[in-house]
Amino acid sequence: MAYWQNWSGRQSGKVKAVHFGRSYADIQALVAELAQSGEHLRVAGAGHSHAPLVVGADRVLDISGLAGVISTDSDRMTARICAGTPIFALGAALHQSGMALKNQGDIDRQILAGACATGTHGSGRYLQNLSASIESMTLIDGHGELRHCSRATEGEAFDALKVGLGAFGVVVEIEMGLRPAFKLQEQGFEIDGNELTESLADLESAHERFEFFWQPRQDKALVKTMIETDAAPEYPIADEGSRCAWNYEVLPNHRPRLHTEMEYSISASAGPACFEEIRLLLMTEFTDVQWPVEYRTLAADKTWLSNAYERDTVTISVHQDVNEDETEYYRACEEIFDRYQGRPHWGKVHYLKADKLAARYPKWEDWWAERNRFDPQGIFLNEFLQSVQIQT
Question: Which of 68, 298, 320, 367 has minimal Cβ neighbours within 10 Å of its Cβ?
């Protein structure tokens, strides 16, 4: 027996084997073998998810050996990238071709396929999540067949694959739409809780890239804004909140403390009211929580299981130390998020069942129909996905 665990150690379990895929042919043969045995396979990236997306399967496939930029096209502003490439390795590589990702998350430790499959995002009211930039992808489906998928081949259903939760097959290549390389000037300032809630709507509308971390014990928030700039990069890179450099040097942050996280996406218009309820919950009922609440903005998109599907969005994240039991706290937060029709981040903790997920995602049944077309035997389903599966 082998053993796998995620970044925090919270998601772990024994499996029959952990396979390391280094070639398409090897992965195809493995999938074909499992199609005969009826075993289940999940792909593991950096293990940075807080959700049970890898555990609960018979075998785990590590694709970190499939890494690197395959090619770039400066005329089309695209790049073909191996799916196992860590995001931190993309910045400089794309920069050499004068290009950059349109958006990326607060953390850059994830591999590209995993970040896309879970709807990872940064902050910006005109910026969509990482998955929205996918132009095409190549995957190995439940029959062991290598398939190149795009809007040209799949039509509207291509939007099902972009946030695919690793359930359509083993993604081995992703073609990303990019933008010209750009620099960012970051500014940070502190604000108290009352002033924050009174001015939150104005702060959001005044800044394209805006986010904050609110500290419950102090009832203060660190607000961060970023603007694109023509100024020269300032090296060595300054501390978070005052950096000025290329995008890939400013956007990611170092978050080494092991923790769990719950994040919900709320309609942008309801974001301030939802945050105020979370703030009051922490100040009146969960006064021992020391971890901050994070608030970011996100533009609407058309990806079926995106947290921002057809609505401009704010995301609100709560955190807890990995050594603490977060259940009571998170469930209380989830009750608030539920009242605002919140959608859970696929890579974070949530407790929703199939009926609630179907109510939150208008294309839920369509997504499952497409998934079953790629993998009719359910090879790429684990216990969690089986528990929320549409029964046909």
Answer: 68
One-character DSSP codes across 29-77 = HHHHHHHHHT--EEEESS---SSSSSSSSSEEEE-TTS-SEEEEETTTT
For residue 222, which phi and psi values (nearest 5 degrees)? Answer: -95, 110
The predicted-structure confidence for 182-227, as pLDDT tens digits, reads as follows 999 999 999 999 999 999 989 988 899 999 999 999 999 999 999 9
Position 48 scores a pLDDT of 86
What angle is formed at CA 110 by the lines to CA 39 and CA 96, rounded to 5 degrees?
130
d(CA 215, CA 112): 31
What pLDDT, in 10s, does the model give residues 125-156?
A: 999 999 999 999 999 999 999 999 999 999 99
Helix axes 271-284, 193-206, angle to 10 degrees: 160
ω before 236 within 30° of 0 (cis)?
yes
CA–CA dist 349, 250 (Å, integer): 27
> Both tokens of residue 159?
């939007």
Evaluate whether 103 touches 118 at the Cβ level (below 8 Å).
no
Judge whether 137 and 173 are in contact, CB under 8 Å.
Answer: yes
Cα–Cα distance between 109 and 101 in angstroms, integer?
15
- Strand 17-20 to strand 12-15: parallel, antiparallel, or no bridges (unpaired)? unpaired
Q: Give, for 80, the enclosing helix (H) or strand (E).
A: strand 78-82
Q: What is the rounded distance in angstroms from the CA atom of residue 218 to the CA atom of residue 257?
A: 20
